[in-house]
Amino acid sequence: MSTHLLAVWGALCWRPINAVPTATLVLAFLTWQLADFGITIGYHHLYSHRAFRAKFPVRVVLAAWGSAGFQGSIKWWRLRHRLHHRFTVSSTRRSSRRD
Ligand SMILES: [Zn+2]
């Protein structure tokens, strides 16, 4: 949440938007997308659910991208996510080993 507030604050400071260099906009978009991949693929599917196996370099890249999302450490994210599934998943999925 704080990242989003900082983004809004940054955008307001850079008014008008056409004053922002194109490279900055491209970098911001790429960082946003890579952080999203890091959270979704890395923090969620790899580290929380162990949905797949990955070699060490892939794990490092996904961890780095996920950290760009400023959602806490992998350990903290996994703990919170497992608590989320404990209290929100239906009884049919609760017996699954990966939940
Ligand atoms: Zn999940």
From TrEMBL:
One of its GO terms (molecular function) is stearoyl-CoA 9-desaturase activity. It is a multi-pass membrane protein. GO terms for cellular component: endoplasmic reticulum membrane. Its cofactor is Fe(2+). It comes from the Eukaryota. Keywords: Fatty acid biosynthesis, Fatty acid metabolism, Lipid biosynthesis, Lipid metabolism, Membrane, Oxidoreductase, Signal, Transmembrane, Transmembrane helix. GO terms for biological process: unsaturated fatty acid biosynthetic process. Residues 1-19 form the signal peptide. The histidine box domains are involved in binding the catalytic metal ions. This is Acyl-CoA desaturase. It comes from Mycena maculata.
